[in-house]
Amino acid sequence: xxxxxxxxxxxxxxxxxxxxxxxxxxxxxxxxxxxxxxxxxxxxxxxxxxxxxxxxxxxxxxxxxxxxxxxxxxxxxxxxxxxxxxxxxxxxxxxxxxxxxxxxxxxxxxxxxxxxxxxxxxxxxxxxxxxxxxxxxxxxxxxxxxxxxxxxxxxxxxxxxxxxxxxxxxxxxxxxxxxxxxxxxxxxxxxxxxxxxxxxxxxxxxxxxxxxxxxxxxxxxxxxxxxxxxxxxxxxxxxxxxxxxxxxxxxxxxxxxxxxxxxxxxxxxxxxxxxxxxxxxxxxxxxxxxxxxxxxxxxxxxxxxxxxxxxxxxxxxxxxxxxxxxxxxxxxxxxxxxxxxxxxxxxxxxxxxxxxxxxxxxxxxxxxxxxxxxxxxxxxxxxxxxxxxxxxxxxxxxxxxxxxxxxxxxxxxxxxxxxxxxxxxxxxxxxxxxxxxxxxxxxxxxxxxxxxxxxxxxxxxxxxxxxxxxxxxxxxxxxxxxxxxxxxxxxxxxxxxxxxxxxxxxxxxxxxxxxxxxxxxxxxxxxxxxxxxxxxxxxxxxxxxxxxxxxxxxxxx
Length: 557
Ligand SMILES: [Ca+2]
Ligand SMILES: [Ca+2]
Ligand SMILES: [Ca+2]
Prior knowledge:
By secondary structure, this protein is mainly β. The chain is built from two helices and 35 strands. The strands form eleven sheets. Strands 4, 18, 19, 21, 28 and 30 form a six-stranded antiparallel sheet that branches. It has a five-stranded antiparallel sheet with strand order 5-17-9-13-12, with helices on one face. It has a four-stranded antiparallel sheet with strand order 8-14-10-11, covered by helices on one side. The structure holds calcium ion (CA) (3 copies). One calcium ion binds next to strand 10.
């Protein structure tokens, strides 16, 4: 929440003070049910869908006497809860052979001052582009959390984190976030797609994801307003994210790491240290930082409430493990632009996010134009900003991130406002350029013995003639449409449908990998007649005929 001083009046805040400030992201990877939330090294990537659950209904300019929820110049303010919101996933976001390995629904809202509680349930619906898949799941967090206070910080973990607003020991409101595993929902969607005979697993994912049934408040405590000639910007929260980690033959080999920490940073700079990985030479890092309650356009150089009256610049900086403090690299892009006027900062926590589609090298904005915030397009209270930190392509990143580094730091600058980091996802390419599973060289070649899949810019083992004579064996990824399993004479080492370019189609190449009860291949497939279970073990197939004449292949654990 940020005060605007109108005219020359100096008036103290009349709003309740916080005490407990939540947790800080990192340094360890998140854990859920004893499992570290990291994936790899294989052909993995991640994508985060997200959507606000707040709308801007009152758009009158804030003046003394204007109704709560009024808007400031260049800072449109949300004021109304939405019952649901929808993100539309396309083949721009996720490749058409993607299989979701893990997914988490995250929702973050404000606590209703008139009904202090947290809502641990949400509804998630998916409707595919062609309308043939329609699945709804009631998502329930395994526990009900209570927003933490100074006296009782409560249990803060991946599943729930909350921060109470207190006044003289009485809780008057607050903010909280739930994060719930919804991987089974995606398994259901994938199975639907296989039953429907979709050519590839990714096709089942394209369509509309709608989240609803989350208790939301637009109580005036949180809304923008003018009181006695002092303006207060809004501090309400409402929105959701859907974190997905997928495997695909179209993406380079990576490790993916998820970190959580719902904290409140006001008028300060905070270092977030993360660890749990090891950088290769010239690492290519992708990072997505989710922050709640940003506002466009309210950065200031000075404010009486900032330390010594000087506010730290809004923004995000990154630093390597061994590089000096003052060598940090400022992160910015076209959706989160660097601003130089009387003072310098990055317009980072602005309700406008950057994302990269799976094959993109440049960012795309969600939420509109950061240089002209549009009340119709802002994703209110949501920033889910993605940055590419490519040491191969950018010497600044090369100086920071060195082979063997096992940690790094990002620094959040809150300026004169408050921001609420929620989670951070980091991927690191594990294969060097020219290696199998790595990017091709710029001239379209790879190391000896490999060839460049030009369309996807990935080095693969060369294909040789396949001796598969089964004409029905045309499945794209893991033989989902191979209906001739009993008689399949495929003995080739380069079965074109195994999705792994022939590197692992022999049952003896990698010990027990791919065999019954052995570990699945890195692309999630197994030898003929077997399928990869959700526990990454090759199991027997159970073939279910359906009335449409197709069949569904389920794994039996
Ligand atoms: Ca408004
Ligand atoms: Ca609910
Ligand atoms: Ca942003």
